[in-house]
Amino acid sequence: MARLRAIHVFDLDGVLVDSSHRYRNLSNGAIDLDYWLANRTAEKIAQDKLLPLAKKYRRDVVADHIYTVICTARQDLPEDVDFILSRLGAPDKLIMRRVGDNTPDGKLKRRELSRLFNLKQFSHLPRFFWDDNPKNLAACFDLFTRVFHIQSKQGA
């Protein structure tokens, strides 16, 4: 195995996957969580489309020198995990929201990524983060060498 040279962290919705057909905002701009949860059936998830950055993600997954992470606020449910594994490929680490955890997205991502980055083998590596939500990028900015804001229909 090649020596790791970088960690690449990708958000899922709006970055790797277009799930906008299952997404809408409330009048105050917040995600309509009830609508999102009602539209998380396997049939609707199967209609999600891969976005252009998914090609880079797939290249990174097979590169021995890159540790790939998907860090999403989606709940850890079998239909979502199945979609990720079958359509994108397995990352080295999959970080998802535990069922019942209502922690705000940015705080959730920061907490989980900090745990990972505190491991000795990852502490010295350059880290790169792709997300469509400016609040998530701001919450995690200082954990990364570089962050990339991806424009999407779903970013808050």
Walk me through the topology.
Layout: E1 6-10, E2 17-18, H1 33-38, H2 42-45, E3 49-50, H3 53-62, E4 66-75, H4 78-88, E5 93-97, H5 105-117, E6 127-131, H6 134-140, E7 146-149
Parallel strand pairs: 1-4, 1-6, 4-5, 6-7
Antiparallel strand pairs: 2-3
Helix pairs in contact: 5-6
Quick recap:
The protein has helices at residues 33-38, 42-45, 53-62, 78-88, 105-117, 134-140, and strands spanning 6-10, 17-18, 49-50, 66-75, 93-97, 127-131, 146-149. The protein is an alpha/beta fold.
Given as residue ranges, the uncertain stretches (5+ residues, pLDDT < 50) are: none
What is the makeup of the main sheet?
5 strands, parallel
Ends: how far apart?
39 Å
Shape: globular
Would you report the number of β strands? 7
Rg over CA atoms: 15 Å
CATH topology: Rossmann fold
How would you characterize the overall build of this protein?
The protein has helices spanning 33-38, 42-45, 53-62, 78-88, 105-117, 134-140; strands at 6-10, 17-18, 49-50, 66-75, 93-97, 127-131, 146-149. With 156 residues, it is an alpha/beta fold. The radius of gyration is 15 Å and the shape is globular. The mean pLDDT is 92.
Describe this protein with a few key phrases:
single chain, Rossmann fold, 156 residues, two-stranded antiparallel sheet, 21% strand, 6 helices, alpha/beta
